[in-house]
Design a protein that fits this description.
The complex is a heterodimer of chains A (281) and B (225). Chain A has 281 residues and is an alpha/beta fold. Chain A is built from six helices and 17 strands. In chain A, α5 packs parallel to α6. The two termini of chain B are 27 Å apart. Classes of the chains: A alpha/beta (281), B alpha/beta (225).
Chain lengths: 281, 225
């Protein structure tokens, strides 16, 4: 079996298995939480990795859908996915019956890198972007980090996962169009918290691109390590088709002009250093 | 009944242990699929097209799903000949499976079909769904077109024909072989089921046994009209 290494750490091979759907719940309008019995995946999975799911039982829609692993329960051998209905694939997935077998490929990708020396962790999620962040929050707390979570959404009903993060012991602030905890953008909130003097050692984020880009600027200015989970249209999910690429700066810093190459979100990511992403799109 | 039918075919002087190959651009450099299948079981691996110098490829989005298929506009992103030889080929040489870059195929055999050019439009933004505007359509949507072309070409040439286009299950592969394909290539289906090539090889063998056919070559172009 082919293994690959990330920063010296051995990442296990990707599996293609059938897993049972244990539960499914609509936690917000069009947003579903699904619990899967997947001991092999739960044992190996790292926060920030994803699974590639065949949503239908036949071949329509044809391609798999990549979804972040939301929670990892190693003890029970279960994983959770949190997803929003975006099209035909996710619609079919939301309609699948409890007890059904789901054909999945995973765990895929590099995952978040929590530095051992970090004391304070800031987690920022925008909309359904909170999906990979709960597992990260759980892992950070397990490693005795002080964790703050900022959740941004368009409206109150779409603020997802607030209770789950709180249960883990993180301090959570949610924001939306103006009717909730904080009025304004989640990025403004982040800036305010930094100004007030709560300086994280690392910022982790997932969500809409403009949000990720803005946080990149904030993190750069405050000199904070920033890791971001990227999203792109994906076909194979195993690094073969080169469909899901994003622009990543190349190492050569001698030249004034920013040079870049296309890296695969599926296996080179989905987590990249915010400072190496070219945010021009 | 026969227990072990012959699956070996010959294409342009290369002996393949079975007629199932991977389609260029859908199988990476082979190693991406090694967690799922034994690469030694494949008839041949066709790698992503390679250029002399590395190529960066097109901006994203590069892929989009369409009814029973997908559009792609990768832009031939590849590591270039030098890195292919240095980094990718040593791994592939461990296997007893021929691997060759698509460009080398030459004219001792014909492979058809490539993707068909298509487009998809986002009606909210009124922009093309692919950054490149157009892309290559692949998947089950193109299968009838590919089959018809394989059949027509098979009747007019004397060199082997390789059938490609929308094969996702053994029945599809058999259709191509009966229509005249000496070998077939699996492309988009690798994205859906990473073990599909092996499933199809096993399915072809089972079909030959069930129909009491000793040699796959007897099936090639055996369509009755």
């Amino acid at each position: 079996l082919a293994n690959w290494r990330i920063k010296g750490e051995k990442v296990s091979a990707i599996l293609n298995i059938k897993v049972k759907i244990l539960s499914r719940k609509e936690v917000a309008p069009n947003i579903y939480l699904m619990n899967l019995k997947a001991p092999e995946i739960a044992q190996e999975a790292l926060p920030g990795q994803f699974i590639h799911i065949k949503c239908s039982k036949d071949n329509y829609p044809l391609l798999r859908r990549p979804l972040s692993i939301h929670r990892i329960d190693k003890e029970k051998g279960e994983i959770f996915i949190l997803f929003q209905i975006m099209g035909e694939g996710t619609k079919l997935l939301a309609d699948r019956t409890i007890g059904d077998d789901l054909d999945i490929v995973g765990p895929i990708g590099n995952g978040f890198n929590i530095y051992p020396e970090s004391k304070k962790i800031m987690i920022v999620g925008g909309g359904i972007g909170v999906a990979p962040l709960l597992a990260l929050c759980e892992e950070s707390i397990k490693k005795d980090k002080e964790v703050r979570v900022l959740i941004g959404a368009l409206k109150k009903e779409l603020v997802i996962g607030e209770e789950s993060f709180k249960t883990l012991g993180a301090k959570v602030v949610a924001t939306d169009d103006g009717s909730y905890h904080y009025k304004g953008l989640v990025t403004d909130l982040l800036e305010r918290i930094i100004k007030e003097g709560w300086l994280a050692d690392q910022i982790f984020a997932c969500g809409p691109k403009p949000m990720l880009k803005k946080i990149s600027e904030i993190a750069l200015q405050a000199n904070i390590n920033y890791q971001v989970s990227m999203e792109e249209r994906m076909a194979c999910g195993v690094g073969a088709c080169l469909g899901c690429v994003c622009k990543i700066k190349t190492k050569d810093k001698r030249e004034y002009k920013v040079k870049y190459e296309y890296k695969r979100v599926c296996v080179d990511g989905p987590v990249f250093a915010g400072s190496e992403v070219v945010w021009d799109d | 009944m026969i227990d072990r039918p012959n699956l070996e075919v010959e294409i342009a002087g290369i002996k393949l242990k079975n007629p199932v190959m991977t389609a260029s651009g859908t199988f990476g450099y082979g190693e991406e699929f090694s967690p799922f299948i034994d690469l030694d079981k494949l008839g041949a691996m066709v790698l992503k097209g390679i250029t002399l110098k590395p190529k960066m490829g097109n901006p994203p989005p590069r892929v989009i799903e369409t009814p029973s298929g997908m559009l792609n506009a990768i832009g031939l992103q590849n590591v270039g000949v030098e890195r292919l030889i240095k980094e990718k080929l040593p791994y592939l040489q461990k296997f007893n499976t021929p691997a060759q870059a698509a460009e080398e195929a030459g004219a001792d055999a014909l492979s058809l079909i490539n993707t068909l050019v298509g487009m998809a439009v986002d009606i909210d933004s009124r922009r093309p769904k692919l950054a490149n505007i157009s892309g290559g359509l692949s998947g089950p949507a193109v299968k009838p077109v590919a089959l018809w072309l394989v059949w027509q070409v098979f009747q007019t040439v004397n060199i082997p024909v390789i059938g490609i286009g929308g094969i996702i299950k053994v029945e599809d592969a058999l259709e191509f072989i009966i229509a005249g394909a000496r070998a077939i290539e699996i492309g988009t289906a690798n994205f859906v089921n990473p073990r599909v090539t092996i499933k199809i090889i096993e399915g072809i063998e089972r079909y030959l046994i069930e129909n009491n056919i000793k040699d796959i070559n007897e099936l090639v172009g055996s369509m009755k009209i």
